[in-house]
Amino acid sequence: MGTLVGHVAPGFGFLIIGLWHLFNHTKLHLQNPKTYISSPWFPTSKFKYLELLLVVLATTSSISMELFIGPDRHQPFDPDGTIPSNHLHNFEHASISLTFFVYAVFAIILDKIDNKSKSSLTQLLASIAFFQQFLLFHLHSSDHMGPEGQYHLLLQVLIFVSFSTTLFGISMQKSFLISFVRSLSIFFQGLWLMIMGFMLWTPSLISKGCFMNLEEGHKVVRCSDHESLHRAVALVNIMFSWFLILVSIFGVSFYLVCTKFFDGNKVSYFTLGNIEEEEEFEKFNDDVENQKGSLVGNQKSFIHVGKKTFSPVDIER
């Protein structure tokens, strides 16, 4: 995973899954706002398990790349059967992929049985996968110092959001907001992984005063002095904050666009001036109705003779 392709490829996968979930959760909520229940995955019209099978395929490819295709000897062990230090991070990345593989396989199996708890169990497996991802990135064997470490620290924030919202979604399946945030965090995870790949392994994009150095069989970014390191880390923080704003704008804008296509209950907008006019019109109608009622009541106490009207007092006289 410690290459440009090793970050961009899985990042693209997370981005697509996050976008797919964002679209389906928004569509489902807009069409059924009162009966909405979140789903851990979504079938396609032509092939039901396409999403889950793509996860299985992607994770299998990732494990193969980490343990068999990437290493020079096409296997991750030393001649004595032990794991060499420069392959520890390969096993960590493969373990993350394996957890998502288990989630996807059991999601298919659970969907084939008739059980009320299958959705909750699937969500639990997804939350375990995100927790595994968070734990292994937090306790990474690689020396994630400097700019690379800051990228991974901010990635852990996004992973934790995905984990916590997935865990909350088990007991709060009717909450659209939790599903929306989870989908957006998965999308942001993928986007941030892709940014990491380009920013850390493209020499022209490396921060001023920093350089690529070959350590333990893979390249890492190091800075020449403390000032360059401080500047590089600050730039990573600024970039993350900018992308956080952009992703927030994208998420809300995406929801508003979907509202025009899938909202079954159209909302009519009006100004406060129209409200005041309607209230005055209703008051006017009430006054007219009251006046009509009073005129009808008064007519009963008068006797009309020709064009002259006599009250009861006049008749007594």
TrEMBL record:
Transmembrane segments: 6-23, 49-70, 90-109, 121-139, 151-172, 184-206, 234-258
Topology versus the membrane: Multi-pass membrane protein
Cell compartments where the protein resides: Membrane
InterPro entries named among the record's database cross-references: DUF716
Domain of life where this protein originates: Eukaryota
Keyword set, alphabetical order: Membrane, Transmembrane, Transmembrane helix
Coiled-coil region(s): none
CC per GO annotation: membrane
Family, similarity comment: Belongs to the TMEM45 family.
Entry protein name: Transmembrane protein 45A-like
